[in-house]
TrEMBL record:
<keyword id="KW-0808">Transferase</keyword>
<dbReference type="GO" id="GO:0032259">
    <property type="term" value="P:methylation"/>
</dbReference>
<keyword id="KW-0812">Transmembrane</keyword>
<feature type="transmembrane region" description="Helical">
    <location>
        <begin position="12"/>
        <end position="30"/>
    </location>
</feature>
<dbReference type="GO" id="GO:0008168">
    <property type="term" value="F:methyltransferase activity"/>
</dbReference>
<dbReference type="InterPro" id="IPR041698">
    <property type="entry name" value="Methyltransf_25"/>
</dbReference>
<keyword id="KW-1133">Transmembrane helix</keyword>
<keyword id="KW-0472">Membrane</keyword>
<feature type="domain" description="Methyltransferase">
    <location>
        <begin position="72"/>
        <end position="168"/>
    </location>
</feature>
<keyword id="KW-0489">Methyltransferase</keyword>
<dbReference type="InterPro" id="IPR029063">
    <property type="entry name" value="SAM-dependent_MTases_sf"/>
</dbReference>
<dbReference type="Pfam" id="PF13649">
    <property type="entry name" value="Methyltransf_25"/>
</dbReference>
<protein>
    <submittedName>
        <fullName>Demethylmenaquinone methyltransferase</fullName>
        <ecNumber>2.1.1.-</ecNumber>
    </submittedName>
</protein>
Amino acid sequence: MREGCYLRGMRGLAAALLFALLAGAGWLLLQRRRPVPMPAGLSFLLESRYVERFAGPELLLERSGVSAGMRVLDAGCGAGRLAVSAARRVGPAGEVVALDVREGMLSRLRGRVSREGLRNVRAVRAALGEGELEEGGFDRVLLAMVLGEVRDREAALRELYRALRPGGVLSVTELFPDPDYRRPQTVLRLAEGAGFRPEARYGRFPAFTLNLRRPA
C-alpha cells in the first residue's frame, strides 16, 4: 500500500517536472521569434540556483549602489525578486516602485510584499516606453534581464533616462542563456543613444551588469 502511494507520488512529481521543462522550453522558442514579457507562470525560472549565483538580488543591488533612503524603480519587476530585497535595503525612508506589464506578476509581487510585511513598495502596471513614468523621480533604476523583452528599446531607455534624477544611475543586467540576452556592446550603444554615460561594468560571462549615469 505504502509502496503504491510512493510510486504514484513519484509519477506525479515527474509529470510536474516534465510539464515545467516543456513550458520553459516552449517559452524560450517563442521568445526567439517574437520577444514578449515572461508569463507569471514561468517566474520560477528566475528563482533558480543558477540565477542566484550569477545575478542574485544582493549582488545586483550592491553593484547598482542602492542604499538607505533612495527611491528605486525596478523596471520589469516580475514576481518581486529584486524589489523585495531593494525595499529592505532602502528602508522606511526610501521607496521601491515595482513596474511590470503583467498583472499576474504584480499579483505575485503583492503577495510577497505582504508576507514580508513591507510598506515601502508600490506596484505599478505599465509597459516601458509608453510614457507612464514620472520624470526625475528616481535615484536608481534596475533593469535586470528585461531589455530584450521590450519591443521599442530606444523609447524605453529614453523614458528611463527621463525618470532618473540628474546624476541617477540605470543598472542593466543581462544573463546568458536568457533568450532575450543582449550583449554589452548592444546595451551600451542603446543607452548612449538615450543620453546615458557609461560608469562601470561588473562581470563578463555568463552575466554582466552595466551602470549608466544620467549626467548631473
